[in-house]
Each structure stands twice: as structure tokens, then as C-alpha cells.
Amino acid sequence: MDSILLVRDLLNATEGANGEPVHHKPGPHITHVPTESISRAAPYSALILCIMFVVIFAVRHWLLEAFLLEKYYGTIYTSMDETNRRGFLNHHIAVATRLLIFITAAYPFIDVAFVSASLHSPYAGSKHVTMGDVLLVISLGLIAMYVFELFYRTKISPISAGHHIGVIMIGSFAIAISMDLEHQPDATIEFVLCLVWGAFDIISEFLPHCAIILYRVYPTRHNFLRKVFYIGMVSTFASTVLETILTMCLFGSLWDRWSIGFKVATPMLHVLFASCQLWGTWIFYKMMKKQERLINEQSGMPGDMERALMREKSDETQSVSKKSADVVTREISSNSQSPGS
Predict the structure, then answer these.
(1) 208, 280 in Cβ contact below 8 A?
(2) Where is the composition biased (Basic and acidic residues) (predicted)?
């Protein structure tokens, strides 16, 4: 019995700045996150962001464009036009950045949002680096990735542009207000909720980037691409549903701590983000159907449009046959009723 009580107390505890557990009443861990600054490095966010821009430029200019993509993909890469080539490179930047963020931030994110740590808890036992330090840097990394995409790509849909601008503005806003806790007491929980949004963005958007890369590399493997796009469609839809359930549950559990502005704005922003993700699901559905149509054309089987035309022609043939039969029936009936019959 004592061991059960000990486990319960540990689950209901939050680590303080010195790593010691601070006990709370039962409930989701996020409801016990103290109001505190994200990181001592927050005032230097602009400098960190500029360093990330320089790193992305160096990787793009002196590594990917210089030789790596051409060496690995050969004529597949060199034969692309400028628009597709930029998009292809951007997808590689996005995949690498998301993978790096996932590896670096998985542990501190889960510990701060769902387990027992606070933003000021030591990172992996470090005496100098805190959970908040790491989460601040990876948040700025996600922002830098989206800024790069907006500037680098020559063609981007309004939906994608709106999504990226929203992530950039909301992430920057969450970091900025955390430096004024006196007037923004809900800044800490807003940052943690943004981390939840960002985590789903990292995971759910990883496969779509990989799918587009595969689409450029294997454009004639229609059955393979159909499966890839199907998985992308299902994963983005499932991720959106799960994200909505989790974020709204966390948002509701913190209801008493939100100011009126966040109570109104947060659901609206989530609807906008969810709409963008569902639009991605629709795009994957259309790409999957396109691959199915190409498969049918190659195998000689009629596609959706062809089947519709065949049904229409069949209906017309049946209608003509019915009219002809009616005419013949009337003629026979007329002849049978004539006086000389």
C-alpha cells in the first residue's frame, strides 16, 4: 500500500529548478506547470534565429546545391526545372530539420508537458542547460525552417503560406510574452500548448515531405506512390483528429488560468491550423486517385472518368433500344387492329 501511495505522489509531482519534486493535487501535469520564464536565453532569440538562418544557408548553398543532391540523385535532380528543384531541396531541408528537432526535443517536451519537469528543470542532469533552453532553441528552429521555405520556394499555395505565417507569428508571440510574466501570467502555459501544436506539426508533416521526395524520384511507380499517398492521407487525418482531442483537453483543463483573450483566440487558431492540415489530407486523396487512374490506364482498365462515360453511353444505348422496341410494339399493335387483318 505504501508503494502505491509513493507512485501516486511521484506522478503528481513537478520538478523544481533544483530537480526536487514539488507535490500537487491530482490532475494533468500541465495544470501544475508553474508560471516561469522559458529560458535565460529568451532575450537572445533574435541572435539564435540569425545563427540558424546562416546554418540553413550554408547547408543549402555549400552542401545540397553544390554537390550532394546532384551526386545522389543524378539526372533526376538536374533535369528538374527551377521551381521543382527548389521545392525538392526545400523538402530535404524540412525532413532533416524535423528529424533533428524530434531527436533533440522528444525527451524535454514529454517531460515538461506530461511527466514531472518544469521549464527550469535541468536537461539530462546538466548543471547549465535547462529544459526550457532546449525547447526555446528547437522552437526557433521550427520558425527558421518555415521562414526559409517562405523565402526560398518560388511557388507556394495560399493555404501553406497561411499555415507557415501562423506558426511563425504564434511561436514568436509565445516567446515574446514569456519575458513579461507580470502582465502575461498565462505566457508559460501558452508556450507549453504551442509545444503540443509544434510536436504534432513535426510528426504529421514529416511523411508528406518524404512523400513528395519519393514522388519526384519515382514518378512512374504508380502503385508504390498510391500506397505512399494513402498512408499520407490517413496519417494527416488521424493526426489532426488526435491533435484536436489532446489540445482541447489540455486547453480545457487550464480554463481557469487563461485570460479572456486566450480563451477566445486559442480555439479559433486551432480551427485554422486543423483546416490547413485537413486540406493536406484532401491533397493526398487527390494525388492517390491520380495514381489509381494512371494504374488503370496502364493496365487497360477503365478509370473513374472512363467508367462514367461508359455508363452514360450504356444508358443512351438502352434508351434508344427501349424507344425502338416501343415503336415496333405500336406498329404491330396498329397492324393487328387494321380491318384487313
Answers:
(1) yes
(2) 304-316
